[in-house]
Design brief:
Distance between the termini: 202 Å
Order of helices and strands: HHEEEEEEEEEEHHH
Helix content: 10-25%
Number of strands: 10
CATH architecture of one domain: Distorted Sandwich
CATH class of one domain: Mainly Beta
CATH topology of one domain: Glucose Permease (Domain IIA)
Radius of gyration: 49 Å
Strand content: 15-25%
Protein name: Peptidase family M23
InterPro entries: Dup_hybrid_motif (IPR011055), M23ase_b-sheet_dom (IPR016047)
Number of helices: 5
Largest sheet: 10 strands, antiparallel
Pfam families: Peptidase_M23 (PF01551)
Length: 300
């Protein structure tokens, strides 16, 4: 009896285990996709944006190329012009007014620039200030090439910013422009030409930035600070961009009257010979011919 009972209990235990396994398989089969194994997930399909009257989803409509070309983006507002930041209390203007210009933007020999413009174009004060030097005579000669005369006719202005500005190779100096005259930015100072050592070139303005120094230190006047970055700003950028800081810093570094180091010497003009000439020996006199029939030849 005990043996039979134990056998039945063992059978009932096996049956219970099989029932549990079968139930688990049924549950798993019900949760798994109908077309694949339970371990493989079916790709998800995005829901359609519209459905047909019968309830079936439709494909997302794709516009034709013609429809895409017809689509125009909305027009935006015009850009707002923002003024450049104010970099100094001074306002500058480009030194040649009313003419097409070009100018070099790199150092060749001297820290200055040549502004190419038509003859007669207006040279104007780049900033308010006081006229410092004026030369109305073209004294330069190629035989001597005196350094102080190379810019020909020129005007310098000592700006309110403490910087000196030179315009040289002028064809003429404007009326009323003389040392000590107060000028505003844009005031006519002269007309573009090719005086001085530019006489064999096209008309241009010799433009240089420096600081105040005596006339005998002409190599300071002809240029100490590279000017093209400032010209770029005054022409089409920020008209408050000032060379004051750079100029004063350089003057503090090299001194107010540094020694000339480039193109300093003049030429020596040829001097007439001082060797006395030997008197030439007189030639033998020749008979004179007279229209007077009564006169006789010399020596007869």
């Amino acid at each position: 009896m005990d043996v039979v009972t134990r056998v039945e209990i063992m059978r009932s235990g096996h049956i219970g285990r099989w029932v549990a396994v079968a139930g688990a398989l049924l549950v798993t089969g019900a949760c798994a996709p109908a077309n694949g194994a339970s371990s493989v997930a079916a790709p998800s399909t995005p829901p359609s944006s519209s459905s047909s009257p019968g309830g079936s989803p439709d494909a997302t409509p794709v516009p034709s190329p013609e429809q895409q070309a017809a689509e125009q983006p909305p027009k935006g507002d015009d850009p707002v012009r923002v003024p450049p930041p104010k970099l100094s209390k001074f306002t500058y203007t480009f030194p040649v007014r009313g003419c097409s210009t070009t100018y070099q933007r790199r150092l060749l020999t001297l820290p200055k620039t040549t502004i190419w413009a038509a003859k007669g174009c207006a040279f104007v004060a780049p900033v308010g200030g006081v006229v410092d030097e004026v030369n109305i005579k073209n004294r330069w000669k190629p035989s001597t090439d005196v350094g102080a005369d190379r810019e020909g006719r020129f005007v310098t202005v000592l700006g309110d910013d403490g910087v000196r500005y030179l315009g040289g190779h002028l064809d003429s100096v404007a009326d009323g422009i003389r040392p000590g005259v107060r000028v505003k930015a844009g005031r006519l100072l002269g007309r573009v030409g090719n005086s001085g050592n530019a006489r064999d070139t096209a008309p241009n303005l010799y433009f240089a930035i420096s600081w105040k120094a005596g006339p005998s230190f002409w190599w300071v006047r002809r240029g100490m600070v590279e000017p093209w970055d400032y010209l770029d700003a005054w022409l089409s950028g920020n008209r408050t961009f000032s060379p004051k800081e750079e100029t004063l810093a350089l003057r503090a570094k090299v001194g107010e009257t540094p020694r000339c180091s480039v193109q300093c010497a003049s030429r020596t003009a040829p001097q007439p010979s001082r060797t006395p000439r030997r008197p030439s020996r007189p030639s033998s006199p020749e008979p004179t011919v007279s229209s007077d029939p009564t006169a006789t030849s010399w020596g007869q």
